[in-house]
Amino acid sequence: MSGYANIFKPLRIGHLTAKNRIEVAPAAPFLAAHDATLTPELYEYTVSLAKSGAAIVTLGVTSVDPGHSVGARILSIGTDTYIADLFEMAEGIHRFGAIACCELVYPRYMLSPAEHVANLPLEEVEHIIACFADASKRLAQAGFDMVMIHGGHGNVPAMFFNKKFNHRTDRFGGSFAGRCRFGTELLGAIREATNGKLAIEYRISAEEMLPDMTTIDETLAYAKVIEPYIDLLHVSRGLLETHALLPYINSPIYMQRGHNLPFAKRFKEELSVPVTVVGGFDLELANEAIGSGDVDMVSMIRTVLADTDCVEKARLGNLDDIRPCIRCNSCINSTHTLFRTVRCAVNPVLGRETRFDTSVRSDTPRTVVVVGGGPSGLEAARTLSRRGHKVVLYEKTDTLGGLLNTASREAFKDDVLSYLTWSRENVLRDEAITVKLNTEATPEIVAEENPYAVFVAVGAKPYMLDYSAKEGKVVSATDVDEDEIGQSVVVLGVGLTGLELALSAAIKGRDVTVLARKPYERIGEKDNPINMTCLMRMLDEASVSFLCDCAVEGITDEGVVYSKDGNIEVLPCDTVVMALGLETDKELVESYSSHFPRCFAIGDCAVGAGTVYTAVHSAFDCAMQI
Q: Crossing angle of helices 496-507/529-541, nearest 10°?
């Protein structure tokens, strides 16, 4: 048994027994067909979640509405037509001993104005309740064990409870009891329609985090009213329709893990029904939270997406093999921002399970050389090894990891450091991979290995402006030592690298100004909006200054010379950090491609200033061709 013993204690949920204390939280992967039916891609994706070893697998965002299409690729259980599809899903989940759960929503009103929804005509309210009850009956017929009602994040049940928006004078409004009635009638209708065959999980926002909105004390009172109708309470926070609150629903790397735990603890203290919590948990923190008695269970999705075998690995004690989630939110950004199918930065198979079988080894093992030990080179080496090939990896420095060594230095980048450690150690202990550190490869040196293919993962060079300042005043963000920079710092560049460095320096007490060519409101416009919302808030809280709509004219011993509105100014500082992006060394890449007919450029040397996502995916996609 692993060191996470608290996780692997069974838990009674209504008439069900969960084999452990981990639930795969609901999320819409947008892998269903456009007509809301099941696809092979969605089936295999869901089965991979069940294979993780989690006790509960919850399908995300499934429509109960029989007559409305949201246009997104989500499942429906709004009519009998879909029962067969949901049966397939339940059967796939049960294969691995997990409880099959389904999150039900009424999508027509998910992001509608709350005041409109809370005051719908009575017959429409009763119709919504009937839709949930009928859908639950179909779920039971399809073989599901549990249903989740999403009453948090401003979804329909929360709209009716909110006293700011509910102005009804019928039985669903007015008093506190009236505002609770939509929830109690909904849950009671599900119990009656299913004859108690389905356990009921209810997700809430402990608080809605805006003035005049529902507070935790009000939510606690509501939870006590609905407690007789539910078997598991699922605690989150925030509102979907309020952009500033999205980081609390999908916490990025900058936020503390498990941020909802203190709120869930209050519900655990005051209710007898089991309580689960969501909010950036990994398995280690989940084990601690359960062991302390703060909650009965922990719900997570991104940790499982990053490694769809993670819970089973933990059960077997293979903790070092668990691939960490870096909380980059590539998954939620792909689906809920870009309206694309789900993808994961560190798990290149996720959402593509039908296209790749990583268990298949090559019929003709080869010798393959990887030049460069950054994140892309490490992913290529691991994938090639799994394919059965012998790998020789050249790294010119004494440490594997490339730019991730710099990117993981900040105090708020522990998740990246965990991934870097996992990536590096899994390569170093792989007997099929020979690592040659402190060895700067050349085409001639590589040719001595007689490789079948060569993967060029040499990264990219930082883009630097010309300057006349004395040595040491100007540094690159890719190799800056924050302990050696001065008290007053100017950061040039408003990509993630520059902004994260600015935040880190400010947290350490430096006076930091970020100088940008673009307007302030356009900063981060091409980046993940959830992450940028959180990062920009933290920069403001750390008193980082921004000087926007200006152009750098030079850097002198005095500081940064810049132009703005036709005027030339000097911004005095001790240190200038250039974070203006990367540029590929095309000649270096071509020196390999001209020597070797099977040559793959991967990572930054192929795409310029890339990300962990581009590094991992480019390496994996190319390695799977060998």
A: 30
Pairing label, strands 453-456, 297-300: unpaired
Residue type, 607: V
| CB 283 within 8 Å of CB 326 | no
Mean pLDDT of all residues in 41-47:
98
Give 349-357 contacts, CB < 8 A, sequence gap 24+. 349/620, 350/45, 350/48, 350/305, 350/308, 351/29, 351/31, 351/41, 351/45, 352/41, 353/41, 353/44, 353/45, 353/47, 353/48, 354/40, 354/41, 354/44, 356/624
- Distance between CA atoms of residues 206 and 222, nearest Å: 10
Q: What are phi and psi of 571, to 5 degrees?
A: -105, 100
The pLDDT value given to residue 481: 85
Question: Mean per-residue pLDDT for 171-193?
Answer: 97
- Give dist(CA 23, CA 59) in Å, integer: 11
pLDDT tens string 89-122 = 999 999 999 999 999 999 888 878 889 999 999 9
Query: Which domains are assigned to the chain?
Result: 11-337 (3.20.20.70), 367-460+584-623 (3.40.50.720), 474-581 (3.50.50.60)
535 touches 524 (CB < 8 A): yes
- Which of 238, 126, 139, 249 lies closest to 182, judged by CA? 126
The token pair at 463 is 């883009």
Question: Residue 2: its pLDDT value, please?
Answer: 61
Q: Name the band, by pLDDT with cuts 50, 70 and 90, for residue 362.
A: confident
* Cβ(197)–Cβ(178) below 8 Å: no
H/E run at residue 605: helix 604-607
